User: What shape does this take?
Amino acid sequence: MTTTALPRPPFDPELEVMLEAIGQQIPLTMTREMIPMIRQVPPFALTPEEYDAMGLSVRDVPITGYEGAEILVSVIARKDHTGTGPGIYHTHGGGMVTGDRFAGIQHVLPWVLDNDAVLVTVEYRLAPEHPDPTPVEDCYAGLLWTAENAGELGIDPDRILITGASAGGGLAAGTALLARDRRGPKLIGQVLVYPMIDDRDRTISSQQYEDLGLWDRTSNRMGWSCLLGDRVGTDEVSIYAAPARATDLSGLPPAFIDCGSAEVFRDEDVAYASALWAAGVQCELHVWPGGWHGFDLAAPDTVLAKRMVAARRDWVARLLSD
Assistant: This one.
């Protein structure tokens, strides 16, 4: 018996060429066996000289994470920063299983420069060695530390936004829910970049991109399985691990959500934006036509990637100018 593939939105032509080139260099589908190899390659790193040339200072600070474990955050600010300004709290991507606190910050650093903001990015512990709730609880611990030390960091504690991409977007959404429910730091906004927020694997977009694009359905199942183990897809999963499960999104900060039309996360991200609107929360949603997962990072010089990055940068500027 043969099955017929679902019709799907096509990849943007420029991005399709880039995807084919990437696929000739690395496997596009990620398996659990590949985790150690991928962890050996830092996803993004700037040298101290490069930070200096950008006019930025960087320092690492050990803090207390979930259940008393020591984790690390990096604090990045303009070298001419004085007084207090906006704070940006960053939770990195990597499918819950890879990446470090610098993954994806190339698109966040301009927000620091534009708005004289202070960035705190957290090295949460990764699955499968550290399954749920450790990653999101580490992220919340880092947010608490940021708010409690805002004065010393040069941050206005009433002007902190949270951001993350992919798994980091899911962790940012989960951390925002924790902050609301625990009456923790009051965030002014959340920038959720193609967030990974639903472990249930039921959407049409998941089925459409079974073996297509970066972070396809097989990769996504692997990431959730590493995070949740046997609980994946069951009623035993909390809203903080998989924010798409939340039925009450009231009281959350305004959101910016984006994704590609040609990726697994499309439908869960659109649904989350709709749920925010239904709860009376303002949300700006962008679905970039023909975009595969993470194209802004993997193909930054394409037309669509430049538009995607610019839209985020504009939203953050408007938020922080209020």
